[in-house]
Amino acid sequence: MSSSAAASSFLAIFYILLTFFIRGSISATYSNPNHQLSVDFYSKTCPQLEQLVSSSTAQQFQDSPVSGPATIRLFFHDCFVEGCDASILLSSNPGSGVPAEKDAHDNKPLAVEAFNTIEKAKALVESKCPGVVSCADILAIAARDFVHLAGGPYYAVKKGRRDGQVSLASRVKDNLPRANSTVDQLLNLFASKGLSQADLVALSGAHTIGFSHCNQFGSRLYNYRGTKKPDPYIDRRLLKALQMSCPHRGGNKDVVVPFDVNTPFTFDHMYYGNLEAKMGLLTTDQALFLDPRTRPMVQALGKDKTQFFQAFSMGMEKMGSIGVKLGTEGEVRRYCSKRL
């Protein structure tokens, strides 16, 4: 073989290898959601997006304050099942006989105000930027807006999510924490979503606002872990107040009580101080203080609101990247409750 032929052969092999390398690099980058979601994703296609959503959430917050914690919870329930893809917003198809996520037993308590909030924001965005912005991104932005409207941190929301096309009630139960989950169960669940112990403690701080139904903590009041006695790790005054609101028998199943009895409508770090004072509402809340692995961070965030806000913002960004659909995956719905 001549030297020129050898050189040509070498170059051919080199370019083939280079092509595979470039393709591999692109593929690796594409598969990493942190490289795809960006704060300015809609800077050219819908530059007024943030202002549109914020105007809608501000009005909703004024008209129906419960929309705030309800929407934050809706975002959590969406991301933990199928990823942050707005699959929780899809309505069940009566003809299929297969219920969607929103009709799962664990999602029944989700307030209708949260779903209405996203529908209103989506309609406003569609009027200005038709067919461009996903319901998944609107839900992520709205959750952030409500955190801030209640006094919490304002953090940048990375965008670029696509709406999922699969929504099955059967996938909900094993992907959401229970009101009486142990810390081990919580840690394992969060780890399966790529979230750390620190994320668990910080994101639990969302319970600084919002309400819970009596059936989520009733066993703590009357039959803690089968003892037929109240949970010993609950403040006696709080116990009496909760028993009055949630009687053992004959109570109204629609009764709700605040997670944070001190500042129920303010997004602050009081939640953590409540845990130290035995005033956590759910078993999972109080468990974070009782467990030696999570107690130090509970105490640290209870002393420093700035640290809590930073940790919470980081946790929300990480959670908002769970299982996102990118590029040509999924779709961009015109109406959040039904597929294209």
Structure summarized in a few sentences:
This protein has 14 helices and two strands. With 340 residues, it is mostly helical. The protein is globular.
Folded structure, characterized:
With 340 residues, the chain is mainly α. The chain folds into 2 domains: 49-175, Peroxidase, domain 1 (Orthogonal Bundle); 183-319, Peroxidase, domain 2. Helices cover 49% and strands 2% of the residues. The chain has helices spanning 3-31, 33-36, 49-63, 67-79, 112-128, 135-149, 183-192, 197-204, 218-222, 236-245, 270-276, 283-290, 295-303, 305-319, and strands at 211-213, 256-258. The protein has a two-stranded antiparallel ribbon. The longest helix has 29 residues, at 3-31. The chain is globular and about 55 Å long. The model is unreliable at 1-35 (pLDDT under 50).
Keywords:
340 residues, mainly alpha, Peroxidase, domain 1, Peroxidase, domain 2, 2 domains, 2 strands, 49% helix, 2% strand
| Uncertain residue ranges | 1-35
Give the helix/strand class.
mainly alpha
Would you count the extended β strands for me?
A: 2
- The overall pLDDT average reads 90
Radius of gyration: 23 Å
Classify the fold: give the CATH topology of the largest domain.
Peroxidase, domain 2
Number of domains: 2
Shape label: globular
Q: Can you say what the CATH homologous superfamily of the largest domain is?
A: Peroxidase, domain 2
